Every structure is written in C-alpha cells, then in structure tokens.
Amino acid sequence: MNKIKDKLRLYTPLIKSLQTALLLITGLAGYMSARCPVTTRPTMLGLALSLFLTISGSTILNMWYDRDIDAKMGRTSKRPLPAGKVDPTEVLLVGLFISILGVGIGLAMDILYGIIIFGGIFIDVVIYTIWLKRKTAWSIVWGGISGGMPILAGRALGIGGIDWIGIALMLAILFWIPTHILTFSIRYRKDYAAAGVPTFPSTYGDKVTQIIIAISSVLAALAIGIAAYGIGTNWGFLRLMVVLSGGLLALAITSVIKPSEKVNFGLFKYASLYMLSSMILLMF
Amino acid sequence: MKKISILDRILLLVTGLLAAYQIVVGIDKAGTLATWAYTIAFGVLLVAGLLIIIMGFEILDSPLVVIVSTIIPLTLSLGLVSEYLPQYETVYLIFTIVGFLFIIFTRSAKNKALKVIPVASVHGIAGMTIFLLPIIFSIQGKAPAGFAWVGIGGALIGVGGLLLTFLKSGKAILSKEMILTVLPALLLLMTTAFVVGFSAG
Fold first, then answer.
1. How many C-beta neighbours within 10 Å does residue A205 have?
2. pLDDT per position in chain A (284 positions), as tens?
3. Quick one: fold of A163-284?
4. Which CATH architecture fits A1-161?
5. How many CA atoms lie within 13 A of A118 on its CB side?
6. Residue A87 in 3-state DSSP?
7. pTM: predicted TM-score of the whole model, two decimal places
8. Which of B43, B54, B58 minimises the CB distance to A269?
9. Which of A187, A235, A240 to mutate to test binding with chain B, by most B CBs within 10 Å of its CB?
10. Chain A residues within 8 A (CB-CB) of chain B?
11. Peptide bond preceding B184: is omega within 30 degrees of 0, i.e. cis?
12. 8 A C-beta contact, residue B160 and residue B186
C-alpha cells in the first residue's frame, strides 16, 4: 500500500494537475455547450475519463522527453524525472499506456471524438514538444492548437460533428494560450535561456511579446464571445463575459503601456481565471 | 504595505460573486442604458476585487485607482437616474461623460486644486444621487421600502471613497493599515446592500 502511495506521490507532479484540470474543463464545456441542460451521465463520465487520461498521458510524455532541459531550469529541476526520483523508461511506458487507454476509450465512444483527441496528443507530443519546441519560438502556435483540441472534441461529441462554434471555441483557446505561455516565459526567461529553449521574449524582445499578448487577448475574448453568442448563452452571462474580457484587455494593455513583473504575473493568473470562468459560463 | 490575508481574499471573492450575480440576473428588468451602466459599475467592482485577490493591496498604489474608482459611482448613479428619473437621463449621461473625461485630463495637472476639485465634485454628485434617490423614492412610495438598501450601499461606497481619497491625498483619516483592513469587509457590505436593494427595487 505504501509503495502505491509513494508512486502516486511521484507521478502526481508529472500530470500538472491544474493545467490538466483546466483543459478537462474546456472539454466538458465544449460538450455541455451542445447538450446542456440535457446531458447523458455515462457519456459525460466517459468524456471526462478519456480526456483526463489523454491529457495526463500527453503531459507525462512531454515531461519524459523534456527531462534533460527540465534539469537545466531552476523552476523544473526538482521535478521527479530530472531529480532522478523515477525511472525514465517506467515513465515512458506509463505515459504511453495512459495515452493509448485515453484515446482508445475516446475512439470507442465516438470515432470523430477519438480522432480529435488523438490529433491533440499527436500535435502536442510529436509536433510541439519533439519537433518544434527547441527550434522556434513559434512552436507555441502548435501548443495552442493542441490545447484547443479538448474543447473541439467535447463539442464534436455533443453535436456529432464539427461546426463553426466548435472552431471558434478552439480558436479562443488557441489565442488564449499565448497570454498564458508568453507571460510565463517573460517571468522565467533566465530558465528558458539556460535550457536553450527559444521563446518570444528571447527572440523578439519584451515589447513585441507584450504586444502579441495584448493582441491575442483581444482575439481570444472575441472568439469566445462570438462562440457564446452562437451557442445562445443568455444575455446575463454574455454581459458577465464582456466584463471579464474587459479585465483581461485592461491588464494586457497595461502590460504594454506600463510593463512590470507584477502586472505580467497578474495577467498570467487572471488569464487562467478568465478561461475557467468563461468555460463555466458556457456550460449554462 | 499590508499583506492580503486569506480572510481578505474570501471577503473579496464573495463580493465578486455577488457582483457577478447582479450582472447576470439582478438588472434584467432595467432599460438598455441602465443595464449597461449597472453592468459597468458591478463589472468594475468584480474585476477590481479579482485583481486585488491576485495582485494584493499593492495594486491600490496605482495612479489609475482614482480614475477607476470614479467609474463605479458614476455609472451606478447613471443607471439609477436612467431608470427612475428618465427625464434627466440625457443630461446626466452628459454629466457622466464630461465629468469622467475631466477627471482623466486633470489627473496630470500640477495644480493640486485642479486635481482635487473635479474628483470631489463628480464623486459628490454621483454619491449623493446613489444615497438620496433610493431613500427618497422609498419614502415617497415610488419604489418598495427595500430599495432604500441601495442608498445604504451608496453611503458605504461614499465612506470607502472618502477613506481612499484622503489616503491618496496624503491626509489619511485612518492609517493605511487600518483602511486596508476594513476595505474588503466594507466592499462586501456595500455590494450586499446594493444586491438586496436592487432585488427589492
């Protein structure tokens, strides 16, 4: 029993629980945007399980591949893999098993849904992490596309196909990702430089990065607003979305006009809160 | 600067949730201008609460606080005038826009009087409107008795505004530490009074 507890303690940080939870919520929101208030409980559970496994598996595989650069960054050097607390081969096998199980459940539930979540994990692990992350700062575009797959998959499962609302929801996540990742890469620029990972701040400078964050925040807010309108979200919730989007834009603009560490990290945290709130609002 | 505590965060979170509730369901019966005016007022309250939770009380040191804190009483009073005194709607809308722009433009003035007078007069008129209009209408029977709670919320917003204004002008009535200690509770009480009052109104 203690051995299992120890393993769980070591593996929990490998799935980045907060990020996994946020992406899982986007998938549930995508599904509920099509089916709320009538949702099928077994389908909801299947969706939650397959997405949780696929996203967790994807994160574990990324951690496995990036263990060498994680060891060079102060922020990540204490993670179980770079710290040598877990066996890399075991982690790879667990990551592959969980990913295959997640995609398998997805395919069994619905072919299109399964293909989309497979697309998500393929883009995230193969295109983003293995191929592009160490070559170009623009790799985050692919990270954004893979991040948008859970919500697109959830929506596709709900309506049985891909519609413009699903694409708009995916774009909302795609445009939100730079706000999330770029504020982070400004804060931990030294870490990324030490690991030799190209980022927007190191390639194009802070000013350009902050302008990109502001533009992507505007686009994310627009995409989510258009999608919410298309879904038929009631006026009260739409008003609340406008207010929350206003806060995001105000912070993004402040980070361009009067940049500071405090505003930058405030924007990072607010962007996560914004996305979580927007997803909850889409569920009703 | 006082560090934000767990209790402060909880009080601000409840304030934010009440403001969000008000935006979603509390103002549905109002006209278009009043609805958007109330949305802006409660929206600023919600976002400000979230930002204090995320970034701490240090955010109140920003010079933008004076401008942002003007938006709440101005738009709230505009909503009330639009809903209950529609004949003055246009005049008050002009006052709101001109007053707000005047405050923005005089913020960078070197003359202290030019900085203070617009803030004091605009806050004064908006604050008195929020305080008096609901109470008078309740007494006259033109609105339900419970609507007077909006006036009480107006009084509380006035207290908060005065404390912050005196603090910013360097002539604090209470110490900065004390103001920051009572601010989250004051914001919660004020928002609760508004929500209760508007649900009755």
1. 10
2. 777 888 888 889 999 989 999 999 999 999 999 876 667 888 999 999 999 999 999 999 999 999 999 999 999 999 999 999 999 999 999 999 999 999 999 999 999 999 999 999 999 999 999 999 999 999 999 999 999 999 999 999 999 999 999 999 999 999 998 888 898 899 899 999 999 999 999 999 999 999 999 899 989 999 999 999 999 998 999 999 999 999 999 998 998 898 888 888 889 899 989 999 999 998 87
3. Four Helix Bundle (Hemerythrin (Met), subunit A) (1.20.120)
4. Orthogonal Bundle (1.10)
5. 14
6. coil
7. 0.88
8. B54
9. A240
10. 235-237, 239-240, 242-244, 246-247, 250-251, 262, 266, 269-270, 273
11. no
12. yes
Give B20's contacts in chain A (Cβ within 8 Å).
240
Residue B1 counted as domain residue: no
Res B169 pLDDT > 70? no
B111 in any annotated domain? yes
Number of domains into which chain B is organized: 1
Q: How far is B20 from chain A (nearest CA, A)?
A: 7
Q: Work out the angle at residue A241's Cα, subtended by the Cα atoms of residues A235 and A242, and round it to the nearest 5 degrees.
A: 90
Distance of residue B66 Cα from the nearest chain A Cα, in angstroms: 16
Average pLDDT, integer, range B22-45: 90
Where does B70-162 show beta strands of DSSP type E?
A: none
Test B55 with A242 for CB contact under 8 angstroms: no
Residue B143 belongs to a domain: yes
What are the angstrom distances between the C-alpha of A130 and each of A62, A70, B134?
8, 14, 64
CA distances for A191 relative to A81, A132, A214, A266, B19, angstroms: 17, 18, 24, 20, 40
Q: Which two tokens stand for residue A133?
A: 């992350």
Containing structural domain, residue B155: 6-200
**Would residue B35 count as lying in a domain?**
yes
Domain segments of chain A as ranges: 1-161, 163-284
B167 pLDDT band (50/70/90 cuts)? Answer: confident
